Every structure is written in structure tokens, then in C-alpha cells.
Amino acid sequence: VGLLEKETELATHQTGHNSGVIHAGIYYKPGSVMAKLCVEGMQATYSYCDQHNIPYKKVGKLVVATNDLEEKRLMDLWERANQNGVPGLELVDAKGIKEREPACVGTKAIWSPHTGIVDWARVARHYGTVFQSRGGIIHKSFEATEFTEIDGGVKITSSKGVEVRCKHVIACTGLYSDRTAKLTGCHAEPKIVPFRGEYLLLSKEKSKLINGNIYPVPDPRFPFLGVHFTPRMDGEVWLGPNAVLAFAREGYSWSKFNLKDLAEVLVYPGFYRLAGKYLGYGLDQMLGSIFIRRAVKELQKYVPEVEASDISRGPAGVRAQAMNTDGDLVGDFIFSSGDSGLGARVLHCRNAPSPAATSSLAIAKMVVDKMEQQFNLKLN
């Protein structure tokens, strides 16, 4: 088995730029692949880290309501989380919030004791080490630019002209999943529209106030979650992220611009339908990106001691968000293949945003099952 990696190292993009949270499965639609695999993946992640001595912390998560409307939405979330089989959840009142997070204020919260944090880039690199120890080969700096059907298999050619031949392909290309699908003769949709998530950093002094993850109750009117407090393995506390359109698929800052990437977004009808639905929200996110002090009021809603002088610009990641022509953000993991020819030899992972890292081992198991069934293989 071979792994073709575009970059010089593993975990360079989404995995190396995420929040580092091990999610418990609270938010996802009951019955969805995402909900099922998140709960399974969380448990598998802790087992893997224990087995291989990879450090993590079960810091827990509070999803905090601050008013009557948010309490109603919190109870809807409580029902959803319980349908998903998320373990160990508790409903706590204002006193319970203070017991877990003394600096946090709220009227009611869901406490998730099994939510944790880990260095996901380290985990991914360890996956690679185990893969190689079992006979797998990793080809780095291999940007696949051409797929050709040959007798009994597929020829993959890199941008440098290097060729790899195989019988079947599993394509997990994240920010480029729609382009990879098109290269193999499969449908170009769902379309990947890159959204940059920018984090702020909390000062070292105020970071001491934060014990675990503090999350808002999702507002169903908006497509993204909103600002939250996320402790990191190195002791930092990240705030955010926001969500702004990236001008490049690897656009980790406003200055990173790629004409081809941006043009694809601007000619895609789904983007304008999304923008029409969330114009005010999108403009607010852009202003918040430019003027970071706009975030202070929202942060103080949960931790009143945070002041403008306590925050600074932090890292950013780019979310490979799949979108359809109606402007809907695809809310589940998606796998697909072509019906015949080259496309029938390729299994595409078309949409794997958060909680894909948490779900990674469960996703891998599902991929193996799908490949065994679709390609008539015996991989276990």
C-alpha cells in the first residue's frame, strides 16, 4: 500500500492547523455518519494514544447558555447529544459552571467530561510511522496531477512526472477533493469553498483562568459555531475561530491570493446563494478579522475578565468546506465513486471537515469496509 502526499511532511494543512480538540459528538445530526463516527472515533483516539504513549488531556467541555433563548437551544442540543450516544454528559446550573470553570459565567450548560485535547499533527505523523512499520510506503512531495486507467489498474502521475501504478485508489485530498474527483472522471460536486478560520491568542496571565473548552450554544441561524475558548497542549488558549472566505485554497492569511482558486469560487452559483443567505453574518466576520477587538464583547459574555489588552492575533486554518449549488454547506462526511471506467476504481472522501480528526480511525475502518465491498478486496 502506498500513500501519496503532496507536501514534504504529513499533516501540513487541515490536520496541522486545527484546534486540537478531541470531540465527543455533541453537535452532529442524529443518525448521520458524522455523529456515528465521531463517538466511535473519540473512543478509538484515546485507546490509540494510550497504546502508543501519545500525550493528551481530558480537559472536558462546557457548552454554555447565558439567557433563556440559549437555554432552550441548549436543551435541543442535549436531546441531540443523547441520541448520538455521547458518554458522560451532565446538565449543570450556574453553580455547576463555576465549579468547573470559576472564571466562566452562564445560566445553564452541558458538561462533556470526555472532550479532550491532543496535538493532532503529532498523531497524524504517528499514523504514518505505524503505516510504514507495517510495510506501507509514503511518497512525499507527490502532487497528483493526472489519473489514467491502465490494464488492471490506475496510473497516477505527479507534477514532477513521477508515476505510481496501482489497482485501486482512495482519494482523501481535503482542500482539493473536488478537483481530484474531476481528474478521475467523477462528478465535480460538491464544490470545495475554502473558509479561513482565524484564532486569537489569550494572554498567558488570563490563560491561567481557563481549565477546559468553553463553547457557545450554536445559533441555528448561522452556518458556523462562533467564538470559543480552547486550551492547547502547550498551555496556550486559542479564541475563535471566525470564518472568512479564503482567497486561496491554502490561504492562511489575507495576503495569500490565488487567482484560479478565487475565480472558481466567484463563478460558482452556490457561493452567491450562500452569500445571499448570510450577507450580514459574513460582513461581520470580515470586520472581526480586521478589527480583532470586536471579539472582546463576545468573549466577555462567557469570561468577563477578558479585556482587549489580553488578546492578540494567533494562527489560522483553512476549512475544506463542501458546498452544493443551492448554497448549502454539506453537513456530513461524503464518500463517492464513479459508475464505470477510471472513476469506478477510485473511492473519494469528498467532505471531511471537523470532527474528521477525532473520527479519523473510525473513518479509516469505514473506508476499508467500503473498499472491500466496492473493489471486492480482502483488506482485514
Task: Explain how this protein is built.
There is one protein chain. Strand 10 and strand 11 form a beta hairpin. The protein is globular, with a radius of gyration of 21 Å. Strands 13, 15, 16, 17 and 18 form a five-stranded antiparallel β-sheet that branches. The protein has helices spanning 33-52, 68-83, 94-100, 120-133, 177-183, 204-207, 259-266, 269-277, 279-290, 296-300, 360-375; strands at residues 2-4, 21-22, 56-57, 61-65, 90-93, 108-112, 116-118, 137-139, 144-150, 153-158, 163-166, 169-171, 191-202, 213-216, 228-231, 237-240, 244-245, 311-323, 334-336, 346-351. The mean pLDDT is 96. The protein has 380 residues and is of the alpha+beta class.
Describe this structure in a few short sentences:
With 380 residues, the chain is of the alpha+beta class. Helices cover 31% and strands 25% of the residues. Strands 13, 15, 16, 17 and 18 form a 5-stranded antiparallel beta sheet that branches.
Strand fraction equals 25-35%
Q: Overall 3D geometry?
A: globular
Query: Average pLDDT, to the nearest integer?
Result: 96
Protein structure class: alpha+beta
Low-confidence segments, given as residue ranges, are none
Whole-Å distance between the termini? Answer: 13 Å
Helix content: 25-40%
| Rg calc | 21 Å
Number of helices: 11
Largest sheet: 5 strands, antiparallel
The overall strand count is 20
Secondary structure topology:
Blueprint: E1 2-4, E2 21-22, H1 33-52, E3 56-57, E4 61-65, H2 68-83, E5 90-93, H3 94-100, E6 108-112, E7 116-118, H4 120-133, E8 137-139, E9 144-150, E10 153-158, E11 163-166, E12 169-171, H5 177-183, E13 191-202, H6 204-207, E14 213-216, E15 228-231, E16 237-240, E17 244-245, H7 259-266, H8 269-277, H9 279-290, H10 296-300, E18 311-323, E19 334-336, E20 346-351, H11 360-375
Parallel strand pairs: 1-8, 4-14, 12-20
Antiparallel strand pairs: 2-7, 3-7, 4-6, 5-6, 9-10, 10-11, 13-16, 13-17, 13-18, 15-16, 19-20
Helix pairs in contact: 1-11
